[in-house]
Amino acid sequence: MEAHFYEEENHLIVVASGKLDTIHAPEFTQFLKEQLSTKPSSCLLDLTTVSFLSSSGLQSLLTGAKIAKKENFDFAVFGMKEMVADVFSMSGFDQFIKSYASKEDALAKS
Length: 110
Fold this sequence. Notes:
Layout lengths: L1 E7 L2 E10 L4 H12 L5 E12 L1 H17 L2 E5 L3 H9 L7 E3 L2 H7 L1
Helix pairs in contact: 1-2
């Protein structure tokens, strides 16, 4: 699991790669919290290179969504592979976290 961030068009883009599983999710959650503590106007989570998403990884996403709601900024994900998107939607997370197919879509609609 690796993570980094950058800014584009006034959005904080947080990039996760590898597996968001029980082993790696706590580290990613801490990284995400640190980035969100800057209180960006918008955070887009790039999941294009995430190969596996477990319930622990979903918890990381939930943490980000809760922080965004509390601090009143937009939070969305984009670029999920089919397996990751299936876990995301079957868990019902698509009901409260916006998701986009690509970064271009996310930037245009956020």
